Amino acid sequence: MQKETLCVHGSADDSHCTGAVTVPIYQCSTFAHPGVGQSTGYDYSRVQNPTRRQAEQTIAALEGAADCLAFSTGMAAIACLLEPLTAGDHIIATSDLYGGTVRLFSHLEQTRGIDVTYVDTGDDNAVRTALRPETKLVFMESPTNPMMRLTDISNLRGLIGAVLLVVDNTFLTPYLCRPLELGADVVVHSGTKYLSGHNDTLAGFLAVKDKNLAETLRYYQKTTGAVLAPFDSYLLIRGIKTLALRMEKAQQNARAIAAWLKAQTQVAHVFDPGVGAMLSFELHSAEAAQALLGRLGLIFFAESLGGVESLMTYPVTQTHADVPEELRARLGITDRLLRFSVGIEAAEDLIADLRQAMEGL
Predict the structure, then answer these.
(1) Which CATH number belongs to the domain containing residue 63 in this structure?
(2) Residues 118-147: tens digit of each pLDDT
(3) Looking at the annotation, which residues are catalytic?
């Protein structure tokens, strides 16, 4: 099936006899056994739940994965992925990652003795220089958050050999990019964002190429327990049915808005990856950036991204507040920078809101 069809029908459920078109919400914690040593395949919802399994199978189909694990948040998914690492292991990470990921990596460095090196994963020499015998994992975003830098996943795969390659595909989703086909081993999603698409639930996913690795991660997931609840699984399934339509419209809006921003004298620079619906732009002063946020009417000044509503974020105090100031400055994450998650509203209305907010800046 094509991606558009998988979004709608990837969660088809044959586990019941009612003929329900929508996947049921199995709001139960435990399941009865037919007999001693027998199971229906479901025993306890921390281990597995029918609604959650349908969500996992949908993402697995969209990403072309051997298996997929659903978590309560994107950060819970990343934390589970890193559980097998031990003291002395080394991670190479994209330099401007989401601030929450940087915070987790910093915690691992301080408490578990895991070393992290941040590089531009699009720079071949930087990647080669960072590689060590103890490098166990390369963690990348493309486009990056919030500077929208791109990395050639296939090229990076060739550079790092057998080292595990993990791609956070939250910004592009499997509708626009399938990293496993390009050489990645694991794909991370904050399902809270585009997969859900309505700013109404939290979710995280690991789509895994290798079945044995997936089984290892399921052991850690079962042990730590940060699984996606049945109702949230249902919301995710419902949201993803319109993923193709939402991504097409939001991406179209983003290109139109990026072109408009580039023509504005108040805007110093626009960071537009040319794909997806995320972009960032820089004004000439912190005062102008903060004033614009206070003047927005239609666009929400809020954290997060990927919903049908357009959201503007101030990374320096929100998503990247925990990133050391020196690192932020080196990456260009300044107090003049705004990150824009473009929604599915009429582009003309979004531009009109930006225009009125910029007047007099």
Answers:
(1) 3.40.640.10
(2) 999 999 999 999 999 999 999 999 999 999
(3) 46, 98, 168, 193
